Amino acid sequence: MGVFKIEGGHQLKGSIKPQGAKNEALQILCAVLLTPEKITINNIPDIVDVNKLISLLKKLGVKVVRLSQGTYSFQADNLNLEYLESDEFKVDGRGLRGSIMIVGPLLARFGRGYIPKPGGDKIGRRRLDTHFEGFIKLGAKFGYSKEDQFYGVEANKLKGAYMLLEEASVTGTANIVMAAVLAEGQTTIYNAACEPYLQQLCKMLNRMGAIISGVGSNMLIIDGVDSLGGTEHTMLPDMIEIGSWIGLAAMTKSELTIKDVSWDDLGLIPNVFRKLGITVEKQGDDIHIPAHTNGYEIQNFIDGSILTISDAPWPGFTPDLLSIILVVATQARGSVLIHQKMFESRLFFVDKLIDMGAKIILCDPHRATVIGHDFKSTLKATTMTSPDIRAGVSLLIAALSAKGTSTIMNIEQIDRGYENIDERLRAIGAHIERIDV
Ligand SMILES: CC(=O)N[C@H]1[C@@H](OP(=O)(O)OP(=O)(O)OC[C@H]2O[C@@H](n3ccc(=O)[nH]c3=O)[C@H](O)[C@@H]2O)O[C@H](CO)[C@@H](O)[C@@H]1O
Ligand SMILES: C=C(OP(=O)(O)O)C(=O)O
Predict the structure, then answer these.
(1) Could you tell me where the beta strands, DSSP code E, fall in 12-122?
(2) Which DSSP string do the residues of 283-320 spell out, in sequence order?
(3) Which atom of ligand 1 is the closest one to the Cα of 96?
(4) Would you state the pLDDT for residue 286?
(5) Radius of gyration of the chain (CA)
(6) Which residues of the chain have pLDDT under 50?
């Protein structure tokens, strides 16, 4: 188990380049299963979840060649489908959330897809109904073993269908799209998720020969084709990492430049940080955050009432940045209500911030009111455990702004999604040390 020791209270300075997007990578890597031809992918983040998925693909028989840092080629021309029935697969599949997205491509190309209940963050119930209801609509037969928590779908040939998803599930939409591209006839997915991750996936599939229209909207129309070919794909920068660095800069009063952020794909993210009073400057395709020497002031709504920041399916504000927003608000001037609508256990980490001296009222599992300190009182260093990936980084940001030395345990959670974070933070002046215990 690893631990971070962090000496807080130091101003940081410099520039930081975001890694490739974790959640996009998980979709794109699964899509290599759709063709026997070679696919080259650039800007793959070197993070635990992605490496676990690459290892799973290798065991499934995909030929994986590392061409350079972040660039790999994949070829799924001779798969070992027996692996899907092995005990080893049950362990590997549970290791991350993204593994669920091998089901759609396997079902479409080989007529069967299996997966144990996938892992990922323990942030509340994370049901898979949307995925399997979609496959069933395409004609698949569904099976579930309660004892092993093992899911399976089988079909001779998928047939296109109209479907209105109950929720705009991100991984669910990706999974159904990857099944529908090889189905017979036309599929319409209404209430589809449309995050940049999905837009990237659809663009890549179209380059492979798929026919998908409506990309970027909540209605995708897919005309099935018989087979798909190879392509090359480059991952976007990770928008959640970008948001994390904006928060880090503000809370440590540091001047930071975040390089090559792909502004056009950031949606509401810069504006939501601006609502906390943070100056987010566009410099070409970089984000520049000046040192907030005089703090930052939360805006009210135009009628003067207290600001609420809540999550919503894209193009709404992503739930993956609410924990960061919350921690940054603890040092703002003013108050804000954070409303985490999607996940029911994602705000429990605030008890650690309260221990550090933050003024937060956890109203219920979904809502927390934050009354900012305006830097009149700094957070106190402490020892804490990271419950999930984004809470982990929020606690890390809190520790970097706190007085004294904090310890964060269970940093595997952070390593799931942030590449080489300690080294990259040290490069901009953070006092952070990784200790293997
Ligand atoms: C590997 C990956 O890509 N993980 C992301 C993906 O997870 P994942 O694809 O697992 O999440 P889903 O989009 O399926 O749903 C997440 C949660 O939100 C709820 N929900 C979803 C859609 C909706 O319209 N209303 C609603 O309430 C669901 O019931 C569920 O509890 O999307 C989540 C929501 O953006 C992100 O937090 C995760 O980082
Ligand atoms: C919740 C997240 O990840 P996962 O879906 O992989 O658990 C996340 O990236 O914030």
Answers:
(1) 13-16, 38-42, 63-68, 71-75, 112-116
(2) ETTEEEE---TT--BPPPPTTSPPEEEE--STTS--GG
(3) 1
(4) 98
(5) 22
(6) none
Query: Is the ipTM value over 0.85, yes or no?
Result: yes
Annotated binding site for phosphoenolpyruvate: 22-23
Q: Is 121 a catalytic residue?
A: yes
**CA-closest residue to ligand 1 atom 10:** 171
Residue 74: CB atoms within 10 A of its CB come to 23
The verdict on the CB of residue 243 being under 6 Å from ligand 1 is no
Of 128, 269, 389, the residue with max ligand 2 atoms within 8 A of its CB, to mutate for a pocket test, comes to: 389
Please state, in angstroms and rounded to a whole number, the distance separating the CA atoms of residues 248 and 175: 34
- The predicted structure's pLDDT at residue 148: 86
| pLDDT tens profile 108-158 | 999 999 999 888 777 788 889 999 999 999 999 999 999 888 999 999 999
Q: How do the domains of the chain map onto residue ranges?
A: 2-19+237-436, 22-234
d(CA 202, CA 193): 12
Catalytic residue among 49, 121, 265, 388: 121
Class of domain 2-19+237-436 (CATH, top level): alpha beta
Tracing tokens 């209430």 back to the chain, one arrives at 191
Minimum-distance ligand to the CA of 417?
A: 2
Kindly state the tokens that stand for 173. Answer: 């939409």
Cα distances (Å, whole numbers) of residue 275 to 190, 281, 296: 32, 14, 10
CATH superfamily of 22-234: Enolpyruvate transferase domain (3.65.10.10)
Summarised one tens digit per residue, pLDDT across range 204-244 is 999 999 999 999 999 999 999 999 999 999 999 999 999 99
Nearest protein CA to atom 31 of ligand 1, as residue: 126
Q: pTM for this structure? A: 0.97
The reply to whether 2-19+237-436 and 22-234 are identical in fold is yes
| Residue ID of nearest Cα to ligand 1 atom 30 | 126
Whether 64 contacts 435, CB under 8 Å: no
**Strand 286-289 versus strand 281-283 pairing type:** antiparallel
Task: Enumerate the known binding-site residues for UDP-N-acetyl-alpha-D-glucosamine.
Answer: 97, 320, 342
